[in-house]
Amino acid sequence: MFNTSKPLAGGCETVRDMFHYRRHPALCGLLLVLMLTVMSAPRAAEDVHPFKLGSLSQVLGAREGQPFVLVLWSLDCQYCPTELKMLSELKRNHPKLDVVLIATDTVNDTPQLISRAESYGMSKVEQWVFAEDMPERLRFEIDRRWYGEVPRTYFYDPKHQREAKTGLVSKKFVEDWLARNSVPDVGRH
């Protein structure tokens, strides 16, 4: 991990010196904090996957036999913030609720997508963004009857039979879906 035979920055002779603050304590402490920050910093580009032809199969394959919610959204969508915040709230009460976000924006919008999803409380869910020159092909792969309106939400049961909803989905509908698909809340196991 570290070459402990060479002096480190700030006059620290070894990693051990950094932890014991023998020499310049403030500098060694700052170096340690900086190293830990860099090592634990999320990699934004890896947090949002490029959604290409065939990506839907990946999403489905990773959830074989499991119910989940797939939400198509966009930075420009008027109703998406309301729906994503509602799903975030339900996810807090139902930690096993699996939500996948697919943004219909472009890969260039990744930093904004990450920021917006975080502001909605959805930073820990799997996220994808359209990454094809012809988004129509992606829309067709997802659903031949979908023309790009968002939010578009798909509720997959354990057999991956899906129910599509366009526009704002009510909290009651999602709660009923959760109950039908045995997604436990915090109080149940």
What does this structure look like?
The chain is α/β, with parallel strands linked by helices. The chain folds into 2 domains: 32 residues, no CATH class; 137 residues, 3-Layer(aba) Sandwich (Glutaredoxin), CATH 3.40.30. Strand 5 and strand 6 form a beta hairpin. It starts with 14 loop residues before the first helix and ends in a 9-residue tail after the last helix. The N terminus is likely disordered.
Helices and strands in order, then pairings?
Blueprint lengths: L14 H6 L4 H16 L3 H4 E4 L3 H7 L6 E6 L6 H14 L5 E5 L6 H10 L6 E5 L4 H8 L9 E5 L5 E5 L4 H10 L9
Parallel strand pairs: 1-4, 2-3, 3-4
Antiparallel strand pairs: 2-5, 5-6
Strand order of the largest sheet: 1-4-3-2-5-6
* Model regions low in confidence, pLDDT < 50 over at least 5 residues: 1-9, 14-19, 30-45
Instruction: Find the CATH superfamily of the largest domain.
Output: Glutaredoxin
For the record, the CATH class of the largest domain is Alpha Beta
Looking at CATH, which topology of the largest domain would you report? Glutaredoxin
Summarize the structure.
The protein is of the alpha/beta class and 189 residues long. Helices cover 40% and strands 16% of the residues.
